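Appendix B. Extra example for self-study. Work through it before the problem class; the solution is given directly after the inputs so you can check yourself.
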Amino acid sequence: MSGTPLPGLLPLEVRDAVDGLAGARVLIVDDNRINRHLLLALLERGGITLIEQAEDGQDALALMERFKPDLVLLDLMMPQMDGFEMCRRLRADPRWKSLPVLVQSSLSRTEDRARAFAAGATDYVTKPINAVELLARVRIQLRKRAMLRDLEQYHSRTESELELARAMQARMLPGSDRLAELEAATGIAVQAHFAPSSELGGDFWGIERLPDGRVAVYLVDFSGHGVGAALNTFRLDAICRQIGCTDLTPAEFLEAVNRRLCGLLPSGQFATMLTGLIDPVAGEFHYASAGSTAPMVWHPGDEAPRLGDGSGLPLGLLPSVSYDARRLPMPPGARLFLYSDAAIEIPIEGGESHEVLDEYGLATLLALRLHEPDDAALLSGLLDDLTATGPIDDDLTALLLTRQR
Amino acid sequence: MTADGWHSPGCGVVSPPDAGHSDSLVSGDRNCDCRIPDCTVLDCPILVVDDTAFNRTLIGAFLAEAGFRQVSFAASGFEALAMIEAAVPDLLILDIMMPGMDGFEVCRRLRAMPETADLPILVQTALSSGEDRNRAFAAGTTDLVSKPLERTELLARVRVHLEDRVLIRRLQAYRARVEAELSIARSMQEHLLPTPAQCAVVAAAAGCRLRAHSVISPHLGGDLWGLLPLGGRRFGAYLLNVAGRGVSAALNAFRLHALLQELGPAHGEDAAVLMTALNDRAAGLLAPGEKATMTYGVVDGEAGRFIHASADGAPPMILNSDGGPTFGAAAGLPIGIAPGTRYRSEVMELPRGSVLALYSVAVLEALDAGGTGIGLGWMISRAVAEGEGFDAVVHSLGFALGQVSGDDHTLLWIEREAAA
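Solution. Structure tokens for the complete assembly:
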């Protein structure tokens, strides 16, 4: 059987993915020279070429750092340091915590096996050595280790890369210092919650104070989620900043964004967007919506939020669309709630099939908390309610804007 | 990160009381995300197959005592296969000697089916029987437990295999999800680039032929190029590379693309003005340390000129049918470093029959690595001298960049027609 893989030990997919034996390093620890040579010959016949030998635990521990084995074949009864102690020392060292340790011993009593496992052995074969079994177990451990290493490398590489991108996306959103500045200048306090369903998301929002004292706010939700949707938020951010919202009405702004996105988005991709201006002098919220969720407003003393109208064709589908100008009253003390559709597409647990928490369901949840004076407590309470309603499997953004004066 | 399943809600990492190696298959020093919370393993379905009621009870008691919550039992090989067909468990504990269908046969049948090819199978065999053990491995068992059953050994094996399975499944699911996300993103990045038909139309209007070779890394990257149709036998061409790699470089490439779409129609006629305007806008979007190199130029098919500005881009190269290549000398800071930077235009002659080559810095670096003196210029001139042109250059690029695959690179090849 020299070199040929044993049939059926591991699934084909795994066997093909990585040949864990290529370049695998095995350390044999045994005080008996003949045993060592037997094991060495066995492993070599099995296709393993990088092999080191040690005579006892101390000898082996001294070798570990230099040889960096992928597997240790360990005898239990040895002078100086026995296999139990060596195993315990390996497990105490974070570098060798995950190393497969295959114990081979003539101790066959139940208590010995139990002791070996308790000391941290991964597996146990009994002497006299059965060649087929030993090689099979060595292969199982090495292949698994190679596959795990491969997957872990992929994981750690992409994780750090996506973390970098996630930080970039977070930087794109208004930071707490800017919001504090806005609050000081306009009396409009903003509480925001932004939670992509994976590292990156297709949600995006912005807020800006205009020179005439009004405050522009927008909330965007791209189709899909993840990296692709995030790419779209970055270009939309560039577009929004390029257009600038100073001279345009919300409807005109949406139309301008839509024309550009139609030229950029691949077919099948689109975005919903709500953009609006809080006008403190008129006491109104002027807005336009491209298929976004219904904005909700309530005044001090209201028993339930008033729902605005979010209807309108999403962005990126038809360049010639025009959008309606809409308004909601927003006197001092009023609060405005904007959210991505993840908040109203939560499947209701225990409800009829395909039933989701819709805008009215959300308004009902919100109504219970209208009189909470603290913005942060209101928003986090509402988010708790949403989480309790059912699983949220899309990017969720929620904005609470309060006119303090 | 908030990827599904990576953080285990409401369940701490608990070490098993009797074995110090529950997380022994993971590098605990590096990534605690990979550690398998106890509750996940305890919720894995386990199927115990044994014809002896006493053994089923015994194994069931061991598992229940250790906290495993989803243990089912089958009294024969046939029953086991039927149950597995209905729902594949995470681990099978299998007796060998059973009437009807023995354990070897169950193993073989499961390994023959794709959905159970990787199911961990723990076979119970008598310690003494070397023959049985060999046969069990040959039939596809994953591991053995000795009979008479010993509690510590059984639980250690069960745990090791379930932890592996959960861990591998998680890592595989993570990889599948990220690869799917990246593949969508990559096709979006490709969508930014002009199609061959667009290249043909835009270049033909200026009496040129344009060919492009661009490779986008599967992990995404910061390479981008594009064309701006201009009036009067002219068109603009840009090639840019955002510093860094992967997703974050791509995010900034998309930003710059959106800005170029905005600025191109207004400023595309003047290379220096476009570059200056782009830099001013980009400086407001890019974070400190983020930057891009870029070359933008206008190909004038009437006057036979290429007028370009450079933000630290690789120098444009013009190959005449007679004489060696001419390199552009325009210089400027990368995009995003300093707002207010004023870029200058440089005019290069583009006679009939000559070729203008624009390429990403990665191409240049890859070829120059090792200080061989064999640069892109050398390679391109040789390819042109041998009359093979673009295809030969692309071929040698593939050869040269083979070692650094995964990095994106771009080559634009603009040939001015020989006859009017």
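Self-check: Confidence is low (pLDDT under 50) at residues 1-34 of chain B. If your reasoning did not lead you there, revisit section 3.
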